[in-house]
Amino acid sequence: MNLKVKHYGNTLKxxxxxxxxxxxxxxxxxxxDRGLEQHPxxxxxxxxxxxxxxxxxxxxxxxxxxxxxxxxxxxxxxxGARPVVERILELSGIMKIIGVYPTESDALSQLS
Amino acid sequence: xxxxxxxxxxxxxxxxxxxxAAQSDLTLNDLEEVKVAVSEAVSNAIIHGYETSPDGQINLxxxxxxxxxxxxxxxxxxxxxxxxxxxxxTYSSDPERMGLGFVFMQSFMDGLDVKxxxxxxxxxxxxxxxxx
Lengths: 112, 132
Fold this sequence. Notes:
The complex is a heterodimer of chains A (112) and B (132).
Chain A: E1 2-8, E2 11-20, H1 22-38, E3 43-54, H2 56-71, E4 76-79, H3 83-92, H4 94-97, E5 99-101, H5 104-111
Parallel strand pairs in A: 2-3, 3-4, 4-5
Antiparallel strand pairs in A: 1-2
Chain B: E1 2-4, H1 8-21, H2 28-49, E2 57-64, E3 68-75, H3 83-86, H4 101-108, E4 111-117, E5 121-129
Antiparallel strand pairs in B: 1-2, 2-3, 3-5, 4-5
Helix pairs in contact in B: 1-2, 2-4
């Protein structure tokens, strides 16, 4: 798994690539938490376009961050999920509570 | 095949099953579903069965029959007290996990049977239908 963190305006963008399973879940969580702590007023854009596999370990990290963000009145959106990943997001129920958009610009328009 | 309960082996199990399943008439979607189900079963064995201890043994068996693919994941870990409860969608002993492991196994496979005995371990038996 590779992670790229970028901050601009009031948006923290985290781009993830590779496989999101239990092996990398802890590092994924730590990177997200660190970024969100460093930018306490920012919303989160999670770019999943490079993710080729996700299971409940990866989903758990995403849901956990979402719960933290809504407590602070912040917003989280997901962009670029491949069909195979989007299917898992859908089945997990995450798509009912977190906005999932095909492109980054679609996702960003929801944050502005 | 048998491997130890280290996180690296979750991906190894997925790759092994996928390479075997790819020889069958499975669609790409089916193949992805099998990979998720195996990932969940092996992750459960490591996280819950062996409580993340790397010294446990996990046995993975894959059999390809004419009409279905059979996958068995077995550990000798602490077992599950109440299998029925563990299989409920929102049940999770860890707030960072979603309690979706068994839900995914159930949704993505055509057959799921879980046998567990506290102190003895857990056996997860899954079937995926192959198209003719």
